[in-house]
Design brief:
Strand content: 5-15%
Distance between the termini: 38 Å
Largest sheet: 6 strands, mixed
Radius of gyration: 19 Å
Helix content: 40-55%
Length: about 300
C-alpha cells in the first residue's frame, strides 16, 4: 500500500493563444506558451484532484500536447517499483525502535492521528515511517478519500499518450533524487510538512468535495490567484519548507527549461505540479522575468 500511495503522490505531484487551431474565444486555462526564438514550451499543471467526470481536458491543453514532440514531467511514472521499494526502505523508515509518534509532541501527535483517522488510515500502519513519508502517504490518502486516483490524473494521462505516440520523455527529477531531497530535510521541517498536511483539508466530506471542486474550477479556468491561495496556503508561515519543496526545485527546473529553449526542435509539453506554476517564486514568473515570451492560453 505504501508504495502505491507514495508513487501516486511522487509522480503525479507534494499542477496563451496556444495552437493556431484554437478558437480565439477559448477561455484561458492553466496553460502557458513559452517562446524563445523559434522554440516553444507548453507549460501546464497537475492538481492531483481530477475525477473521471473532469475529462475531457481543456481543448487548449489537448491541442498543445498534439503539437509537441517531447514530454517533460516532474518525475518518472514508469520508475521501477522494486527500486522505489528499496529506496523507501533506505530513506523512508525510522530506525527501530523509534516510531513516528516519538518524533511528535503531544499536540502534533493528536493532530496527525486525527487526520489519519479521518481518511480511514490507522495510525499504527504509518508509525514506522519518517515524517516526510507519512506526509506523502497522508496527502495521497486525503485525495483518495475524494475518489481521486493517481492513474486518473494528468500526469498518468499524458505519460500514456506519449508512450503510445513514441514521444521522447524526460523526468526533471529521478526517483532517487526526489527521495534524497525529502529525506535530507531536517526533522523539524519534516514534522512541519506532516502537520501542515494534517491541517490541509476541511473535516467534513461535503467541505472536502467543495474544496476539490474549487481547485479543479480554478485549474480549468486558469485562475492563478485562486489556485495560489488554495495550493500554497499550507505553507503560510513556513518559508523554509516552501523554499525546500517549491522554490529551490523551481530554480533547478528553470535551468533545465532554459536549456530546452536555447535549442532547436519541436515544441515541448511540460507538465508539473500546479503549485509550481502559481504563488511566490513560481516557474511562470521566473521565465517571464528572464525575458522569454509568456502567454497564458
Amino acid at each position: 500500500m505504501l508504495n502505491r500511495l507514495f508513487a501516486g503522490f511522487l509522480f503525479a505531484l507534494t499542477a496563451s493563444s496556444i495552437v493556431v487551431a484554437t478558437s480565439a474565444q477559448s477561455a484561458p486555462t492553466l496553460l502557458w506558451k513559452i517562446t524563445s526564438g523559434s522554440r516553444t514550451l507548453y507549460l501546464t499543471g497537475d492538481t492531483q484532484a481530477l475525477l473521471p467526470l473532469d475529462y475531457p481536458l481543456p481543448v487548449q491543453v489537448e491541442q498543445a500536447f498534439k503539437q509537441s514532440g517531447e514530454l517533460v514531467l516532474e518525475g518518472d511514472p514508469g520508475a521501477d517499483s522494486k527500486q522505489i521499494s528499496a529506496l523507501i526502505q533506505q530513506y523512508g523508515l525510522l530506525p527501530a525502535p523509534t516510531t513516528l509518534n516519538d518524533t511528535l509532541d503531544v499536540s502534533q501527535a493528536n493532530l496527525v492521528k486525527r487526520a489519519f483517522a479521518e481518511v480511514g488510515a490507522p495510525f499504527g500502519k504509518v508509525e514506522p515511517l519518517r515524517p516526510w513519508l507519512a506526509a506523502i502517504v497522508l496527502t495521497q490518502a486525503q485525495f483518495a478519500r475524494l475518489g481521486c486516483d493517481p492513474k486518473q490524473q494528468e500526469t498518468e494521462y499524458f505519460y500514456k499518450l506519449a508512450k503510445s505516440r513514441g514521444l521522447p520523455f524526460t523526468a526533471l527529477e529521478t526517483a532517487p533524487k526526489q527521495l534524497e531531497l525529502f529525506a535530507d530535510l531536517s526533522q523539524t521541517l519534516q514534522v512541519t510538512w506532516l502537520t501542515v498536511t494534517a491541517r490541509q483539508w476541511p473535516q467534513t466530506a461535503s467541505e472536502q468535495q467543495a474544496k476539490r471542486q474549487d481547485i479543479v474550477q480554478a485549474w480549468r479556468t486558469g485562475n492563478t490567484d485562486a489556485l495560489s491561495k488554495m495550493l500554497t496556503r499550507e505553507f503560510d508561515g513556513q518559508p523554509d519548507l516552501y523554499r525546500a519543496l517549491v522554490t529551490d526545485r523551481n530554480e533547478a527546473w528553470f535551468k533545465t527549461l532554459e536549456r530546452r529553449l536555447a535549442t532547436r526542435g519541436a515544441p515541448v509539453f511540460v507538465l508539473l505540479g500546479a503549485g509550481h506554476l502559481v504563488g511566490i517564486g513560481n516557474l511562470v514568473s521566473m521565465l517571464e522575468q528572464a525575458g522569454y515570451g509568456v502567454t497564458q492560453l
